[in-house]
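Project standup — Tuesday

K.O.: blocked on the structure for the chain from last sprint. Re-posting the sequence here as requested.
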Amino acid sequence: MPKTYKNIFEGIYDFSNLYDAYLKARKEKRYREGVLFYTSNLENNLVRLMNEIKEGVYRPGKYHTFSVYEPKKRKISSLPFKDRIVQHALNNVIEPIFEKVFIYDSYACRKYKGTHSGVRRLTHFLRSLSAGAYCFKGDIANYFPSVSHNILRREIARRISDKRALALIDTIIFSHCAVGKTDCGLPVGNLTSQLFANVYMNQLDYFVKHNLHCRHYIRYVDDFIVLDEDKKKLAAVKDEIEFFLRDDLRLALNKKSSIFPVKQGVDFLGYRIWRTHRLLRKSSVKKMKKKIAEFAAGGIIPEKMEATVASWLAHSRHADTYNLTKKLASLMGKHSQFLSKIMLNRINPGAAS
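H.V.: unblocked you, prediction finished:
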C-alpha cells in the first residue's frame, strides 16, 4: 500500500502558508487592479480566506475564459486573484507529496525539470541507442478537457486521506467542467491543473515503465516518447498504451501519434533532435521571421521586440543555430543595429561591439 498523508489540512490554511501563497500569486502581477485591491487590505483578506478554508465554506469564484494562439488556439480559464492564492497554498502542501512518487523522466511543471532538461534527456537516450533505432511519439487527444474528475479524485485519494483536504481539492476539481461535459475537464490556466495533470498521467508513466518495461521513456504533459531498437516491439507497446489509456484513463491517442526511425529526427519540446545534433522547429524560425517583419512595419515597439529577441535567443541557444542566428541578425540589422548586435553577441561575444 502506498503511504498516505492524513493531517495536512491545517498546513494549507496556516497564515504563513497563505502569505507565501499570496507572494507567489502576485509575482509579476503586483500592479494589476485585482491584486492592488486585494493587497490594500491584505491582512484582513488573508484572515477571511483562512477562515473560509478552515470552516469548509470556501468556493472558487467565476472563471474568466479567453483564447490564446501559441501557435494553435487554446482556451484559457483563469480565476480571481483570491482563488489563485488558494491554489498556491494547496500546491505548497500537496506538491511535495506527489513529487515523491513521480518518475524521474516526467518533465513538465516540476522543479529542476522543464523543457531543456527534457531535451537533454532525450538526446542522452538517442545516443545510448543505435542510429537504426525507432521512436514512438505519442500525443493525447484533447487532454485537459478529457481528464475524468472521478479518476483524478481516486488517484489523489491514494496518497491523501485527510478528508477536509480532499474536500477542498474536490471543490477545485469539480468547479470546472469541459464544454458539454459534466464529469471531466481541467481548466488550462489553473495552477493546480499543472499538478493534477501530472498526477493523472503518472498512472501511464508507471504502466509504461513497470508493466511494459520501457527503459527509454520520457513525458512532458500529454506528449511522450518511447524509444527502442525493435520497431515491432514499439508497435506492441503502442497497442498496449492505447488499451490502457482507453480502459483506465478514459483517454485516447491523437491520430498524429506514430512510429518512425530516429534518423528522421524527433520533434519534441520545440526542437528537432538527432543523436548528433538538434535544430529549432521550423515553426519557431518562421515565427521569429514574422516578428521581425512586424517590427519592421512598426507593429511592435522596440522594448517589446528586445524582449522577444531575448526570449528567442534563450530558446535557440539549446540548438545548433549559429548560421541561423547570423542570418536572422542580418535580417534584423536592416531595421535595428542594436538588436542585431545583441543577436550576434550571443553566438560570438564581442564580435559585434
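K.O.: great, moving the ticket to review. The two ends are 63 Å apart (CA to CA). The chain has a mean pLDDT of 91.
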